[in-house]
Amino acid sequence: MNKQYIETALALARLYGIAETLHPWDYLENDKFVERIQAWTDEFLSADGTDLVSFFESKIQAD
């Protein structure tokens, strides 16, 4: 994995953790969580995204 992928995945995971404390979401199994973060990371990087927070907000609003 390249550095940009890892940094993006870590940032999305951290944002998810923060949002999870503010919203009453159902428990998400670890394997499902990893799949979600991987999919979001792939999508963000393939779209040449520059605003990770806006991207993240759009993803959690869609859920």
What would a concise description of this structure say?
The chain is mostly helical.
The strand count comes to: 0
Q: How many helices?
A: 3
Largest sheet: none
Mean pLDDT: 92
Beginning-to-end CA distance, first to last residue = 27 Å
Strand content: under 5%
Provide the helix percentage: over 70%
- Contiguous uncertain segments of 5+ residues: none
Structural class call reads: mainly alpha
Provide the succession of SSEs: HHH
**Outline type:** globular
Radius of gyration: 11 Å
Key descriptive features of the protein:
3 helices, globular, mainly alpha, about 0% strand
Textual characterization of the structure:
The protein is an all-alpha fold. Helices cover 76% and strands 0% of the residues. It contains 3 helices and no strands. It has helices spanning 3-22, 30-46, 52-62. The longest helix has 20 residues, at 3-22. The radius of gyration is 11 Å and the shape is globular. The mean pLDDT is 92.
Would you spell out the secondary-structure blueprint of this structure?
Blueprint: H1 3-22, H2 30-46, H3 52-62
Helix pairs in contact: 1-2, 1-3
